Amino acid sequence: MATSNPPIGESILNSTSHVSEFTYPEGGFAAWTVAIGCWCSMTAGLGLVNSVGFLEAYVSYNMLPSSSPSAIGWIFGTYDFPSYFCGVQIGPIFDARGPRELMILGSVCSLVGIFCLGLCTEYYQFILSLSILNGIGSSFLFTPAMGTISHWFNARRGLASGFAFTGSGLEGVIFPLMLQSLIPRLGWGWSIRLVGFVLLFLCIVSVVLCRSRLPPKRGATSCWRDVLPSAAIFRDGIGAMAVTSAGVLLVEWAYFVPVTYLPTYYLTRKGLSGRQAILCGTQDYGRYYASAYTLVSFGCLTGIPIAGSLMKATGDSGRKSFWGYILFTGLIYIASFACFLWVRVRIKGWNWKVVW
């Protein structure tokens, strides 16, 4: 007699009962080698995303000085959008086939995009190279990386994931400093190309080291539905997945606004020109992670242009024009905290000593 699968909500609330179905290395040479590969993939995929503040300031003042803040914002908002939105399909494909093919495609898109970025002089060229090609490549690099971590770590997944994420933050510091040093000597084109060679190295290492541990869903047991996204993930009966995704959406919606506009705010506050400043469930983990970040992509798409519009809508000039986007960001962070608090209390109650 056929048996039905348990509701998704039940699998979330009783996730610990499923852990015994799998064994996790939780460390060792093989697992940490994979973690290093994921670190490289996350660095290549998100390092440039976390450098958008420098890029926005330089492009605004030096490459596209006649474009409005809102128009410039759409370049970087559109860049962030596919970085997360493509995950709606990448996650299920990862669960079915593993990370390597996806990372190869992401590497090709990112490298073509970054080398083309060095040739850009017109608005539409920035959209095509940075926003579209690099955005898609970023998604194909970092989404499989997070899924791969889940195959090798369970109890220590937070540690391994945190390690992998440090790469994107590190490159968010190194890439701007690198460009700030190189642009005065080599110009925009060759400075961007050198960043591209760094990404090339990171992509090669990530493709070589990242591998899944669970067998891909192929053969007689596979189904074409295995590589399709599923809205049922959000229908867990208690709203935990939907509210968690909403919380992440709000965090990312607000996050990219200050990351993008803080350098420009600094220039305005100090009265500097742009040139002066520039020189000074484990087997379905990919599906869940990607589904949440598909919603996040819409926040990434709209947050930066909205902030750019608010700067103009305030009617103020200079540093006073930034109060609208500062208020916008703060309110979104408060709403995001409320979402995460609701999920925590709904599932684990008010006892903060209970480890989730």
Automatic annotation (TrEMBL):
Family per similarity comment: Belongs to the major facilitator superfamily. Monocarboxylate porter (TC 2.A.1.13) family.
Entry annotated with the keyword Transmembrane helix: yes
Source organism of the structure: Aspergillus homomorphus (strain CBS 101889)
A cellular component term, taken from the record's GO annotations: membrane
Membrane topology: Multi-pass membrane protein
Location(s) in or outside the cell: Membrane
Record-annotated membrane-spanning stretches: 29-59, 71-90, 102-120, 132-153, 159-179, 191-209, 238-267, 288-310, 322-343
UniProt keyword terms in alphabetical order: Membrane, Transmembrane, Transmembrane helix
Coiled coil: none
GO MF annotation terms: transmembrane transporter activity
SUPFAM superfamilies in the record: MFS general substrate transporter (SSF103473)
Main location: membrane
Full protein name: MFS general substrate transporter
Keyword Transmembrane helix among record annotations: yes
